[in-house]
Design brief:
Layout lengths: L7 E2 L5 H10 L5 H11 L14 H10 E2 L4 E7 L5 E6 L5 E9 L4 E5 L3 E2 L17 E2 L2 H19 L5 E4 L9 H12 L11 E5 L3 H9 L5 E5 L5 H7 L8 H15 L3 E7 L7 H10 L6 E6 L13 H13 L3 E5 L18
Parallel strand pairs: 1-2, 6-9, 9-10, 10-11, 11-12, 12-13, 13-14
Antiparallel strand pairs: 3-4, 4-5, 5-6, 7-8
Helix pairs in contact: 1-2, 4-5, 6-8, 9-10
Length: 350
């Protein structure tokens, strides 16, 4: 009696593992390399696409493996040109990715997710109101890049220039798969993107930031800071209670000393809460540890959070104070707010 074969996810196999599998079947090892390149370099979604393999070999692959699918569920286009896409994973769960075009500067950025939901409960973030269902695997992260890159080419005639891991989830709580996705995106024999065009954003997990440094991560790092003292940060970001600012500064300094990537502080300005001149002075002190750029972000309202965005005059005074202290500052205006695609708004709404 024949034993039924239960197909497994072929994207879980490294190239060496695929080559070994082909060798165990009495087939040339180079077939494993071909299949691996079809999956990652060419983005094949079925074995039928692998036209340099014989039909009989493709049938064997179908019997032993499957390639997980990701489909576009809904697409929304903002009046400012931002495109938000809700994607359905092979198990039915939903995530969101965003294309942020700055046409004049020829900068086209994909904001991609690393988890279904999030477990950190930052009070100002819609994703934080969701429960974390599961981590994405490296293939699902790379699939987002492919889909958003295609949108960028179709809508703007230009491929993506940047990738930011700033969508749904905390990337460092999915460390292994995030690093593997960066490896695939940047490997010269696969997608060949520049690691300096990739930024991983974290709410701040000092132990894993140090591990990234020890692992030789080459991408840029963004810290979702949002308050420059522990008392205020504890109020809006519970993770700060286990990863206070002193521990974070030590870990990021270690990361910078070993990896040399760009460091950015993301700072959402809330009116009357973290936008005083004293807050600016506290923030300036946190910029003395290593070269850092500060992105001041307009708050994008979500249900259940009472704070509002800083008034323009307070925001200007705050930024000017930082500049006088020789801090590099950019005020980042909201993009895609009308379709709930702006920073902190991703939550599969609707």
């Amino acid at each position: 009696m024949e034993v039924a074969i239960s197909p497994v996810d072929i994207r879980k196999f490294a190239q060496a593992q695929l080559e070994k599998w082909f060798g165990d079947q009495g087939l040339p090892l180079f077939r494993g390399r071909q299949v691996y390149q079809w999956i990652w370099q060419k983005g094949a979604t079925s074995f039928e696409e692998m036209t340099n393999l014989s039909k009989s070999l493709r049938v064997v692959l179908e019997q032993h493996f499957f390639i997980p699918s990701m489909s576009v569920d809904t697409v929304q286009i903002s009046k400012d040109g931002t495109i938000k896409t809700r994607l359905k994973l092979h198990d039915g769960h939903l995530i969101e990715s965003v294309l942020i075009p700055v046409v004049k500067e020829k900068r086209f950025t994909a904001c991609i997710s690393s988890q279904v939901g999030c477990s950190l409960s930052c009070s100002f973030c819609a994703t934080g109101k969701m429960k974390r269902i599961r981590n994405l695997d490296a293939g699902e992260i790379v699939d987002q890049y492919r889909i958003v890159n295609k949108q960028s080419e179709e809508h703007y005639g230009h491929p993506l220039t940047n990738i930011v891991y700033m969508g749904m989830g905390e990337p460092l709580l999915n460390y292994k798969e995030v690093l593997e996705s960066v490896r695939i995106l940047t490997h010269p024999d696969l997608l060949g993107l520049s690691s300096r065009r990739i930024t991983v954003s974290t709410a701040g997990i000092s132990k894993i930031i140090k591990k990234m440094a020890d692992d030789g991560a080459k991408f840029n790092l963004a810290l979702s800071l949002h308050a420059a003292d522990d008392v205020k940060r504890n109020q809006i970001m519970p993770i700060n209670e286990q990863n206070n600012l002193e521990a974070l500064m030590e870990s990021i300094q270690y990361f910078h000393s070993k990896c040399k990537g760009k460091i950015t502080y993301e700072y959402i300005a809330f009116n009357g809460f973290n936008d005083t001149l004293q807050d600016a002075d506290n923030l300036a002190k946190l910029c003395n540890y290593f070269p850092v750029k500060v992105n001041i972000i307009e708050y994008n309202p979500i249900e259940g959070f009472e704070m509002v965005k800083s008034k323009n005059d307070r925001l200007t005074s705050f930024a000017d104070r930082l500049r006088r202290k020789r801090v590099q500052v950019t005020i980042r205006r909201s993009r895609g707010q009308d379709i709930d695609a702006a920073c902190g708004q991703l939550a599969n709404k609707g």
